[in-house]
Amino acid sequence: MDIRRRQSKPVRVGDVQIGGDAPIVVQSMTNTSTADAQATLRQTYDLAELGCEIVRVAVPDRHAAAALPQIVRHSPLPVIADIHYDYRLAMASLRAGVHGLRLNPGNIRDPEKVRAVVRAAKERQVPIRVGVNEGSLPPLPPLGDGELPPPKWQRMVDAALWEIRLLEEMDFDAIKVSVKAFDVPTTVAAYREIARRTPYALHLGITEAGTLRSGSIRNAVGIALLLAEGIGDTIRVSLSADPKEEIPVAYDILRALNLRQRGPTIIACPTCGRIEVDLIPLANQVEEHFQKLGKPITVAVMGCVVNGPGEAREADVGIAAGKGKGAIFRAGQVVRVVDEKDYLSALVEEGQKVIAEKWA
Predict the structure, then answer these.
(1) How far apart, in whole angstroms, are the C-alpha atoms of residue 318 and residue 332?
(2) pTM of whole model > 0.70?
(3) Complete DSSP assignment for 225-272
(4) Are strands 333-339 and 325-330 parallel, antiparallel or unpaired?
(5) Which of 62, 104, 209, 306 is within CB 3.0–4.6 Å of 215 for a Cys-Cys bond?
(6) Taking 80 as the threshold, does the pLDDT of residue 191 lie above it?
(7) Domain 11-256: assigned CATH number
C-alpha cells in the first residue's frame, strides 16, 4: 500500500524536523521526577539508544523547572516541556532553553497568559504544541432548552482551534497539534477534522491507553488508522509501563505500514501442533537480540516444514527449525544445517553478517 501523506507545515524541534517531507518522528516522555535531573537524563539516554528522537518532560512545579537547564544542556535529544495550569512554568522552561513547549488549552484559559508565552517562544524560535486531551476539555457553555452537547471529538477540535487562533493572531505559526482521547473512534474523528481544518503538523497518540499489552493494541489501532490515511507527522505510544517499552511499539506500527524501518522485522510461526521445537522462547530471544542492534533486518523463525522454508526464504536471514536439526537461510539459500542447541547462536551469527554487509 502506497500511503500518500497529508502535506503539513514543517516545524523544527531542536535539530529534528516534524512535518513537511520529514519521516514520521518517534517521541516518548520520561516518567522520572524532572526535578531529579540525573534520573531524567539516564532515562533520556536509554530512550535515545532505542531510537527515540524527541523527549518530553513534565514540568509541574518550580523544582522541575529549576532542573531544566541541566537536562537541556546534557540531553542527547531535543527536550519538550509539558505545561499545564501555570503559564509561568512555560516561561521558566523557555528561559532554560527547551526546544519545544506543550500547552493544554483546557488548562490555561486566560488569553493574556497564553499570549505572554507565545511572545517568549517567538523570541526564542521555540515551537508550541497545542495539546488537547479529552479528559481536560474547557467547560461547556450553557446549553439552550433541548440543545444537545456537541460530541467529544468536536469539543476537542474547538479547544485546539481556540488556541491556534490566539497563536495565529500573534503571527506565530511554529505550531504542532494533538487531539488525544482514550476512546479510539473519538480520537480518530478529532484528528480527521483537525487535519481538514489546519495546515499544521500533527502529533498522534492515544491518551491513557493502558498497560503494555492492552495499551499497545489500543495505540496501534488508533495511530495506524490515521497513519494509513496519511494523517500524522510524529507519534508517541503512551503506555503504563517503562517508557523504553514505547519505542519498539512505535517502530513496529511504522514498520507495519512501511513508513519507517528501524530494528528487526520478525517473521515467526503462530505455532501449532506440527512444531517440534520450543519456538516461542527462541523467537523472543531472536527479537530481543536484533532489537538492540537497531538495524533494519528481516529475520524468520519458523518451526515446521509447511511454512518454514518458504517464509525463511523471504527473510534476510532465517531458520527453519526441526527436531534436532534446523536449516539456516540467507537470501533464499540454505547456508548451513545446525544442531538444535545452536539455533540461536547460528541465527544471530548469520544475522550479524548480513548487518555488517549492509551497514558497513
Answers:
(1) 9
(2) yes
(3) HHHHTT--SEEE---SS-GGGHHHHHHHHHHHTTS---SEEEEE----
(4) antiparallel
(5) 209
(6) yes
(7) 3.20.20.20
pLDDT tens-digit profile of 140-178? 888 888 888 899 999 999 999 999 999 999 999 999 999
- Range(s) of the chain covered by CATH 3.20.20.20: 11-256
Which residue in the block uniquely carries the three cell numbers 482551534?
Answer: 161
In whole angstroms, give the CA distance from residue 181 to residue 193: 14
For residue 149 the three cell numbers come to 452537547
User: For residue range 73-119, what is the model confidence (pLDDT) as tens digits?
Assistant: 999 999 999 999 999 999 999 999 999 999 999 888 899 999 999 99
Question: What is the CATH number assigned to the segment(s) 264-358?
Answer: 3.30.413.10
Measured CA angle at 86 (ends 120, 189), to 5 deg: 90
Query: Is 7:35 a contact under the CB 8 Å cutoff?
Result: no
Residue 203 in 3-state DSSP? strand
Which DSSP helix (H) or strand (E) runs through 339?
A: strand 333-339
